[in-house]
Specification:
Helices cover about 45% and strands about 20% of the residues. β1, α1 and β2 form a beta-alpha-beta unit. The relative contact order is 0.19. Strands 2-1-3-4-5 form a five-stranded parallel beta sheet, sandwiched between helices. α1 (about 15-25) packs parallel to α5. The longest helix has 12 residues, at about 15-25. The chain contains six helices and five strands, in the order βαβαβαβαβαα.
Length: about 140
């Protein structure tokens, strides 16, 4: 796939290790130019307004705000494609959400243990999900 513009991705996760792992995975792809990170939705919202990311990867388990509410806001108010990367959702969550909304969400179900190992093992799939989401 050849793109004229490079993809900007915002990662929202309370775990610094997860943010760093995803950032490293994404920046190793030449089509992804910028990775912005935030530990929670309030910080992320400011970064969205300033940086206009093409895709958001987020965990819906957030310390300060209901992540599902923020997810809905991202999709409906900002029209940003979202990849939910969380332990509390599964592929069926994405399928049912997309039936009700704009098909702008994909799901990566984090395992309960060895999350960074899992992300490393599925890095090519993650990069492809980001590229696919950016095409919306």
């Amino acid at each position: 796939m050849t793109r004229n513009l490079k993809i900007k991705v915002l990662i929202i996760d309370q775990s610094k290790l997860i943010r760093q792992t995803l950032e490293r995975i994404l920046l190793s792809d030449q089509e992804i130019i910028t990775v912005i990170v935030a530990s929670e939705p309030f910080i992320a919202e400011h970064k969205i307004k300033a940086m206009f990311p093409d895709v958001v990867i987020m965990d819906v388990e957030t310390p300060s705000l209901d992540g599902v509410t923020f997810l809905k806001k991202l999709i409906e108010s900002y029209s940003i494609p979202v990849i939910v990367c969380s332990r509390v959702v599964n592929k069926n969550f994405g399928i049912s959400y997309n039936k009700q909304h704009s098909k702008r969400m994909q799901v990566i179900q984090k395992p309960k243990t060895n999350v960074t190992g899992y992300l490393e093992e599925t890095k090519q799939e993650i990069r492809e999900m980001v590229k696919e989401a950016a095409e919306f």
